[in-house]
Amino acid sequence: MTLANCPRCGALFNKITMDCCKQCYEEEEKLLRKTQEYLRKNRVAPMFEVIDAIGVEEWMIEKWVDEKRITLHDPTVQSTVHYCSSCGRETKPGETLCKTCQFKLLSTKKKNSSEQEEDPKTAKRDRSGGMHFKRS
Ligand SMILES: [Zn+2]
Ligand SMILES: [Zn+2]
């Protein structure tokens, strides 16, 4: 039995089984469950919001994230997450279109460019041709 003072409340506890006293541990577990519950409902809640809502401390959240007991929405990650401007799917950083839409765009571009090659002539002909009559 290795006794140590709880880093949080100073109470003696058995250091082998836990890294703080039982009371603080239970308190932490309670907060963890609350945090997990909160994050289930608010997936994109930033850390400060969780801290505010649960009354949990920042270091606890950081610890849980480290221990992979919670996954916190990281605002620095968010800024690099892009959504496809065409279909709204998540895309890689720096890409405004997802792979599918990029491919679609590429194939329509190809199609368009081959059409466009004829376009100027058609346009010229149209202009020089003067009036057009709708065939009815
Ligand atoms: Zn304690
Ligand atoms: Zn897309």
Question: What does this molecule look like?
Answer:
The chain is mainly alpha-helical and 136 residues long. It contains six helices and four strands. It has helices at residues 22-41, 47-54, 58-66, 75-78, 99-116, 119-129; strands spanning 3-5, 12-14, 82-83, 90-91. The strands form two sheets. The chain has a two-stranded antiparallel ribbon with strand order 1-2. The radius of gyration is 30 Å and the shape is rod-shaped. One zinc ion binds at residues 6, 8-9, 11, 20-21, 23-24.
Q: What is the secondary structure topology, with strand pairs?
A:
Layout: E1 3-5, E2 12-14, H1 22-41, H2 47-54, H3 58-66, H4 75-78, E3 82-83, E4 90-91, H5 99-116, H6 119-129
Antiparallel strand pairs: 1-2, 3-4
The structure holds zinc ion (2 copies).
Short description:
By secondary structure, the chain is mainly alpha-helical. The chain has helices at residues 22-41, 47-54, 58-66, 75-78, 99-116, 119-129, and strands at residues 3-5, 12-14, 82-83, 90-91. The radius of gyration is 30 Å and the shape is rod-shaped.
Number of helices: 6
Q: What is the terminal separation in angstroms?
A: 99 Å
Shape: rod-shaped
How much β-strand is present in the residues?
A: 5-15%
For the residues shown, what is the average pLDDT?
A: 82
Percent in helix = 40-55%
Low-pLDDT regions: none
**Biggest β-sheet, characterized?**
2 strands, antiparallel
Query: Which strands sit side by side, in order, in the main sheet?
Result: 1-2
Which molecules are bound in this entry? zinc ion
Radius of gyration: 30 Å
Please provide the ordered H/E string of secondary-structure elements: EEHHHHEEHH
